[in-house]
Amino acid sequence: MDKAELQAVMEGMIFAAGEEGISAKELAALLAIDKQEVENLIQEMQIKWKEQKRGIQIVKVAQHYVMTTLPEHVPYLEKMAQVPKRTKLSRASLEVLAIIAYCQPITRMEIEEIRGVKSDHILQSLSRKGLVRDVGRAEAAGRPILYGTTKQFLHYFGLNHLDELPSPHNIFNWQEWEQEKQDLFQRLGLKAEK
Q1: Which domain covers residue 10, as residue numbers?
Q2: Looking at residue 172, what is its pLDDT?
Q3: Percent of residues, the chain, with pLDDT higher than 70
């Protein structure tokens, strides 16, 4: 790989590492190159990105490289975070939001048990958008934060009150699902459990 290709791969790896970042040692091992070469290539990228006036930068935090926005752009990013209608919610965000709306107050661990995957970044994003908030502490070990929806959540979905949420039983067509299950078992020559 030439230098430009290496830098492109490193850019992708640093981006994919997210907030945790990735160390020069890890990058060197993954790319089968010297650690010093990794650091030199990243330093070149940092200089080039600054010259190009890009909106993101690579910084070293606790021996790990991470991508961040520029400090001078914070006011614009704060405005963006305060306008949830301007940003679409991902499927995962909607899933977490639905769990909170129907089960509130609820802890992060309870949300993750329902989803089966970590949800801390999504909760942070939903909090920044003003759709969920800390509504107290659970009476469990460590006193975990309890999450609930906000007035902004109601506004976002055009609701006056949480009572206007559709019943969970109405969202999923259980009869249709049962029929599909029966059809599948029949095609497989099995007997469906009742």
Answers
A1: 3-71
A2: 58
A3: 88
- 180 neighbors 174 (Cβ within 8 angstroms): no
The H or E element that residue 145 is part of is strand 145-149
CATH code of the domain in which 104 resides? 1.10.10.10
For the whole model, what pTM was predicted? 0.48
Task: Give the tokens for residue 183.
Answer: 């059809």
> CB 164: neighbour CB atoms within 10 A?
10
Altogether, the residues listed in the chain come to a count of 194
**How many distinct structural domains can be found in the chain?**
2
How high is the pLDDT of residue 49?
A: 96
- All residue ranges of the chain with pLDDT < 50 are none
Tokens of 155: 């506004």
SS3 state of residue 138: coil
| Exposure string for 106-121, b = 16+ CB within 10 A, e = fewer | bbbebbbebeeeebee
